Amino acid sequence: MPELPEVETVRRTLEHLILGKKIKDVSVFWPKMVKHAETEEFIHSLRGQEILEMRRRGKFLIFYCDDVALVSHLRMEGKYNLADQHDPIEKHTHVIFHFTDGTELRYRDVRKFGTMHLFKKGEELLQLPLLQLGPEPFQPEFTADYLTEKLSRTERIVKAALLDQTVLVGLGNIYVDEALFRAGIHPDRKSKSLSEKEIEGLHREIVHTLTEAVDMGGSTIRSYVNSQGQMGMFQQNLYVYSRKDEPCRNCGTPIEKKVSAGRGTHYCPRCQR
Predict the structure, then answer these.
(1) In this predicted model, what pLDDT tens digit does every residue of 37-68 receive, in sequence order?
(2) The one catalytic residue among 21, 59, 79, 106
(3) CATH 1.10.8.50 for the 144-267 domain, yes or no
(4) Fold of 4-120
(5) What are the residue ranges of CATH 1.10.8.50 in the chain?
(6) What is the spatial distance between Cα 204 and Cα 198, in angstroms, rounded to a whole number?
(7) Residue 219: closest CA among 249, 239, 244, 246
(8) Contact (CB, 8 A) for 203 and 149
């Protein structure tokens, strides 16, 4: 599933490609993707709307138009691409936004897990799915003190706590594993067992890891590309994720993989005791 760096990269790409375009019509081929509106209402509400701004909240993209906000989650395989109206439509294309200039924004999703929530502009942050999200890693409110408060109050292992989007948004399996490795913390440590110094280090590494990943366009592990078909490059800098049995870049010990918090988890048994 695309995490914060990948979704931020898609946002930046789309911002360059579609801002200022006006929606002439919308085609929906898989109505189950549309939430908070019936399909016809979804289409009618978007007709004539100009895309004014692109934002991201956690792993969600937000298309801000004249009167409405479209909140999109890519889930496992969702991809946007800009095409000419005469270009062949690829298989698994489920929603098409037809623009007045003859171009189209097409949403393709092999697994059909992606969602699109439509709200009146101004209401998108007051309802699910965005309502209960925690702070952004790059916002001032995400401090070491905030992280200490959240981790010290839970019996969960630290990996599970960091995957909780109500604690902190944007982190998924890849970047939790990477941040924990950089901070020297085992993923199965009880959250409340972490010292103040360890949490300060973890806070620092979460921000540093995500910053580096955003700068490199995210990580292409399986099928992720941005909206221009370009791969992310941060996977070249991964220390543990997807490196099972490979030598640790720090100490040479083979990277191990286990299930923690219901997710495949990579770690170094020596660096993260």
Answers:
(1) 999 999 999 999 999 999 999 999 999 999 99
(2) 59
(3) yes
(4) N-terminal domain of MutM-like DNA repair proteins (3.20.190)
(5) 144-267
(6) 10
(7) 239
(8) no
Among 75, 204, 263, 269, the active-site one is 263
Question: Angle at which helices 196-215 and 4-18 pack, to 10 degrees?
Answer: 30
Provide the β-strand partners of residue 119: 69
Q: Are 248 and 239 in contact (CB under 8 A)?
A: yes
What residue type is assigned to position 126 of the chain? Answer: L
Q: In the numeric block, which tokens belong to residue 251?
A: 């100490």
CA dist 190 and 159 (Å) reads: 9
- Tokens for 86, please give them: 């005469």
Q: Is 59 a catalytic residue?
A: yes
Q: Is 263 a catalytic residue?
A: yes
Write phi, then psi, for 189 (nearest 5 degrees): -65, 140
Return the bridge partners of 54, or none: 63
* pTM exceeds 0.85 for this model: yes
Write down the catalytic residue from 2, 5, 135, 137.
Answer: 2
Q: Which two tokens stand for residue 226?
A: 């941005």
Active site residue 3: yes
